[in-house]
Structure formats: structure tokens, C-alpha cells
Amino acid sequence: MKMEKIILTGDRPTGKLHIGHYVGSLRRRVVLQNSGEYDKVLIMIADAQALTDNADNPGKVRDNIIEVALDYLACGLDPNKSTLFIQSMIPELCELTFYYMNLVSVARLQRNPTVKTEIKMRGFADESIPVGFFTYPISQAADITAFKATTVPVGIDQAPMIEQCVEIVRRFNNAYGETLVEPKILLPDNQACMRLPGTDGKAKMSKSLGNCIYLSEEADSLIQKVRSMYTDPTHIKVTDPGKLEGNVVFTYLDAFCKDSHFAAYLPEYNNLQELKDHYTRGGLGDMKVKKFLGQILEEELAPIRERRKEFAKDPAAVYEILRKGSIAAREIAAKTLDDVKDAMRINYFK
Ligand code: ATP
Ligand code: MG
């Protein structure tokens, strides 16, 4: 039998989605969905995972389900082509997690670089790290393998998670026989999109750090955020030579700018390289570059914003999409859990 090509990916409902999500994964998902090359596209709102570090904030997680779903629909994820679902509606994922926990050591989890970074970011002291948070790479492996996903389009912060998932798959298949499918990560093809920095120049645009441009950002606040973006602090006078490294305005241009934007908004340059050369040479002010970036972002976000407003008029319809998607996703996960239990020989009544 030909192996099916299956996409699984998702987001935590901890806030509205931002342009980091968009360039890191969301934009790509829509292209893959529409390519017709995949047998299944599954997109998960990871509420159970969000609760691992928001245990005292269930309202936040609940309220953001609809926000994330609206962002999905606004960007072009289409429920007729993709299965949009909610993680906690699939209890089979917990059961898989429970069995996979036996295949992973505490030391291995402690070595996971993403877990390390996130523990620091969230300010957990060692003794107070929630067990659920610590083990979330295992539950993420359950999410991926439950759907026999072959392809996981994500930002680079997720690379250690996919690695850990592959290890679990191998250990499982070694112990119990070929059952699970090894996934492959699909990273953005553009370096700037791997881990888009925040508007403050900090390492990663993240809902939890408050340095985001949201997909639903209104035009005026978008322009405001672009204007106050971190650039090169040593580039004071227009005539000063400017640095591109760490200059988020140029990083965002790398992520969004096409040659056609120059023809539309800045015809004195042909392409981004010419603009960069002028900036590093000196004689090009930050404001001009920021205005250009603002125009590009507005062009990209305006249609998303408008579609989002349309979908937001009927929240019940959005929940219905998620309900149907969750039923469909559960069927797939239940079948995998069955295979897993057969392999583990815990199918006593069969
Ligand atoms: P939180 O702070 O709650 O973890 P987050 O902003 O990191 O939120 P996630 O839901 O953890 O978002 O990530 C969802 C997906 O978006 C993942 O595939 C992740 O790699 C990608 N992603 C998140 N932030 C960025 C970013 N700044 N650049 C590129 N990809 C990103
Ligand atoms: Mg995250």
C-alpha cells in the first residue's frame, strides 16, 4: 500500500495568531492544503498543551479557541480541505501519551532545548515546573503519531520536538513492532521565517512576550507598531551607515518583501538587495524603510483582517466546523490507538 501523505500541525490557543505563526507555518499550510498533494491535512488547536503552563487560566485558553479558529479561516484554511479540530476533544491522545511516557527518560526531557528555553521564558523554578509542561514533548509526539503524520510544517523552535517524536516512534516500533509512522519536519524555506523576532528585537515573536503584530491587527496599530520597531541603535542620522544584523525591519522585509512591492511602493529601487545596500552605505533613513514595510504588511494583512471579520459574525458556525473536525480527527486517532494497543498486546478482549 502506498504510504499516505499526512500533515499535522497546530497552535496553542494562548492568544490571537501573529505574523510569526503566519510566516513560520500558517502561510505554508494553506499552500500545502491547496496543492492537492496531501491525502489529509489536520490542523489542531492545542488547548490541552496550552493548559500545561496556563493551569490557573482556563478562561484564557477557552476564549482563544475561537480567536485561533478565526485566524485559520481568515488565512484560507478551508474546512472542506483540512480537518480543523480541538486537541482535548480527542481523549485517545492522552492514552497514547501515557504509553509513550514509558519510552522517554527524565534526562532526555531535560535535554530538550525547547523545553529548556521555555522553562526559562516562563520563569519556572526547577522545583515548580508542572509535570504536564515538562512532559509536553511526549504529548506532542502523541498528537503527531495519532494521525500517522508524515509532514509537520512548523517554525524552527519545534525542531527538537519533532526529533524527540521520531525517537519515540523508533523506540515504540523496536519494542512492539512496526506500528507508528516517523514524521518529517517541514521548515520555512526562508531563513527569516524560521523564527521571526519580535518587534522589540527579542529572539522570537511570541504571544507570551507581548512583542507581536497580530494577523487581526487594525491598520493604524499596525503602522504604529512598525514605527516603533527595533532597528539599529547606532543608526542615528540618515547619513550614518546602518546595520542589517538584528535589525528587525529588514528581517521582516526578508520575510514578506517581493520585487513587485518595489514597483508599487518604492520604485527608486529594483529589489531588496538595492535597498539593503543603500542602508548599509548610509543615506537611507529608518522612517522610509518602515513606511515601506508598513505598506507591505498592510497589503498582506488587510484581506485577512476583512475575512476574519466576516467569519467572526457567526461564531456558532465556527464552533460547528471545529466540532465536525474533532469528530473526524477522533476517528483517525481511535484507529491508531487500536493499532498501538494491539502492538502492545493490551487488547485482552479481542
Ligand atoms: P506561546 O508563547 O503560547 O508558546 P507561540 O507564539 O510560541 O505561543 P505556538 O502556538 O507555541 O506560538 O506556536 C505555533 C506554531 O507557530 C509553531 O509551529 C511555531 O514554530 C510557530 N511559531 C511561533 N512563533 C513563531 C515565530 N516567531 N517565528 C516563526 N514561527 C513561529
Ligand atoms: Mg510556543
Shape: globular
The side-by-side strand order for the widest beta sheet comes to 1-2-3
Rg over CA atoms? 22 Å
Order of helices and strands: EHEHHEHHHHHEHEHHHHHHH
Taken as a percent bin, the fraction of beta residues is 5-15%
Task: Provide the structure class.
Answer: mainly alpha
Query: Average pLDDT value?
Result: 96
Give the terminus-to-terminus CA distance.
Answer: 25 Å
**Which compounds are bound in this model?**
adenosine-5'-triphosphate, magnesium ion
Task: Tell me roughly what share of residues is in helical segments.
Answer: 55-70%
As residue ranges, the low-confidence spans are: none
Number of E strands: 5
Number of helices: 16
Main sheet properties: 3 strands, parallel
Structural features:
350 residues, three-stranded parallel beta sheet, 5 strands, globular, binds adenosine-5'-triphosphate, binds magnesium ion
Description:
The strands form 2 sheets. A 3-stranded parallel beta sheet has the order 1-2-3. A two-stranded parallel ribbon has the order 4-5. The chain is built from 16 helices and 5 strands. Helix 3 (58-75) crosses helix 15 (286-312), helix 4 (92-100) runs parallel beside helix 16 and helix 11 runs antiparallel to helix 15 (286-312). Helices cover 55% and strands 6% of the residues. It is mostly helical and 350 residues long. The two termini are 25 Å apart. Adenosine-5'-triphosphate (ATP) is lined by residues 11-12, 14, 20-21, 24-25, 154-155, 157-158, 195-196, 204-208.
